[in-house]
Amino acid sequence: MAPFPQSSPWILPTTKPKSSPLSFTGWFVLVAALVGSYHLAEISPGKLLHTQGGSSLWGLLAEFFPPDLSAEFLLYLIVPTVKTIQISIMGTALAILIGLPLGILATSTLTFAGILFEGGSLSRSSRRRLWMLPYLLARGGLSLLRSIPEIVWGLLFVRIVGLGPFAGVLAIGLAYGGMLGKVYAEILEGVKQSPVEAVRAVGARRFPLVVYGLFPQAFPNFVAYSLYRWECAIRSAAILGLVGAGGLGQEIEVSMKMLNYPQALTIILVSFILVTLVDRVSSWIRRTLL
Amino acid sequence: MAPSIEIENLVKVFDGRVAALDSLSLQVEEGEKVALIGPSGAGKTTLFRLLNCILTPTRGTLRLQGCDVTRLSEKSLRELRARIGTIYQQHNLVPQLRVAHNVLAGKLGRLSTARALWNFWDPRPDGDVVRALTQVGIAGKYWERTAALSGGQQQRVAVARALVQNPDILLADEPVSSVDPALAQEIVSLLADLAQEGGKTLVVSLHSVELALAHFPRIVGLRGGKLYFDLPPDQITAELLSGLFTRCEAERGVPERVLRGAVSPVFPLDSPYDKA
């Protein structure tokens, strides 16, 4: 006789649930994609080491050494280096300026869903649905901004505002604004709702409610992710130089075109040091601030 | 004078499926002190979230100080919320903020947006705040980060926030389940005394039946979203209590969906365990 009554079907499982057939399909697609892409991307490692025609890997690398460490060239690099840092800082600042308001609009828990919209009269639900429009527009805008790579934005803005750092700032600002806004929205949607509910329950107005209950919870993650984006912006600022947006990238391009590889290597080393430094600075800010 | 709380046939259904409250009727007069007891899942927390105007009733009437909550404008609803204070089981403080901000948040219902933002920037304590913090015994922690406090200290901060709010109706949902018995006794007495002095209406849900019987002249038993009894403590018998807390199927961990027959049990009934 069963020791459990019929109405209590909650019995411990004795066998591991079978993995779904979907996972086999998944593996198959993954392997097929790898094999297919290998051929379609015309991958042939031999080409890296060939000796006839063009320059071989080793030959080219040898031409880079030793790096040009003359005082004259290093002094000359100070201005482009500072310019790269400035592009990254202004670009990130612009990205935050674009990302924050759009990110807030793209947060469903702030515009139409969740605990902030519970309570009170039932007839208000239709007005709530009206707020989905700015939400959807913000989501769409953010996707558009970040789906265009910063290098394409850069090419575009060099045409509009001319060669120079400003084009780089705009390119980083728009592309990164799209990424920041999306992540800000995700952070805001992910905060613990119970403290927000408590602040709402004391009768707080909408804006103070967000300032007291929501933002303090999201702030550490906002700072951490914005700093990470700043690190990426330094790399981007260097690359954007290639399309004429000034800074170290432009110097690399000039050196490479003039076949002055030792100078190019020096610039690469400088960017490497720069990225490492920014990494240090941002992790220091994170540690002290959070 | 309208009663503080008037509930008639109140129903709250979540996601159109699970009824947390099932035609509950209850009336609490101004200045009354009521303890709410019942098993977990009885609907106590849902009742509190309806009483502090966070949730909207699905059906039935809920009148607070004579106002029907489903008919209020957003503004009147906010003003009503300012007169209802809540203390939560999980404190519901913002852990990243200082104690100062969490306590001052209690005033937000009465402040203009500008004043609220100024207080956030410069959270200096005023007379109310000092009095509240002294009453709960954590005046020395005012500038500390809330997350750095122990569970008991955080619960005191939550009580201080409600004191600073100075509401007409004070709700406390399991306010002492995360503190040691001595502090639990202390907090419940504090709440009862405060309600007594200020003529406030007090509704407290408690796990501890002894605490409820010792401090409250009226005990409401809630079970399965329904009123199980509503009696003074001297009429609460052991049978009533065991009836209230006897576990039924829904509370033993069987998902609601299985009970309603929406999905079949995952495991066959003739499992190896049955043959043992």
UniProtKB/TrEMBL annotation, chain A:
Which stretches are transmembrane? 20-40, 60-79, 85-117, 151-176, 232-249, 261-278
Looking at the UniProt record for this protein, which Gene Ontology cellular component terms does it annotate, in alphabetical order? plasma membrane
Stored CDD domains: TM_PBP2
Quick check: keyword Cell membrane in the entry? yes
Cellular localization per UniProt: Cell membrane
Where would I find the ABC transmembrane type-1 domain in this sequence? 81-282
Q: Which UniProt keywords apply?
A: Cell membrane, Membrane, Transmembrane, Transmembrane helix, Transport
- Kindly report the protein's main subcellular placement as a broad class: membrane
Against InterPro entries, the record matches this protein to:
MetI-like (IPR000515), MetI-like_sf (IPR035906), PhnE/PtxC (IPR005769)
Please, which domain of life does this record's source organism belong to? Bacteria
Q: Tell me, what is one Gene Ontology molecular-function annotation carried by this entry? A: ABC-type phosphonate transporter activity
Name the Pfam families for this protein: BPD_transp_1
Query: How does this protein lie in the membrane?
Result: Multi-pass membrane protein
The record's section on NCBIfam families has: PhnE (TIGR01097)
Query: So what family is this one in?
Result: Belongs to the binding-protein-dependent transport system permease family.
Protein known as: Phosphonate ABC transporter, permease protein PhnE
What is the species of this protein?
Tectimicrobiota bacterium
Automatic annotation (TrEMBL), chain B:
In terms of InterPro entries, this protein maps to:
AAA+_ATPase (IPR003593), ABC_transporter-like_ATP-bd (IPR003439), ABC_transporter-like_CS (IPR017871), ABC_transpr_PhnC (IPR012693), MetN_ABC_transporter-like (IPR050086), P-loop_NTPase (IPR027417)
- Is Membrane found in the keyword set? yes
List, alphabetically, the GO terms of the cellular component aspect. membrane
Q: Where is the ABC transporter domain positioned along the sequence?
A: 5-249
In terms of SMART domains, this protein maps to:
AAA
Keyword annotations of the record: ATP-binding, Cell membrane, Membrane, Nucleotide-binding, Translocase, Transport
Q: Which Pfam families match?
A: ABC_tran
Give an example GO molecular function.
Answer: ABC-type phosphonate transporter activity
Asked whether the UniProt record includes Membrane among its keywords, one would answer yes
> What PROSITE patterns would the database entry show?
ABC_TRANSPORTER_1, ABC_TRANSPORTER_2
Q: Which named protein is this? A: Phosphonate ABC transporter ATP-binding protein
Give the organism the record lists: Tectimicrobiota bacterium
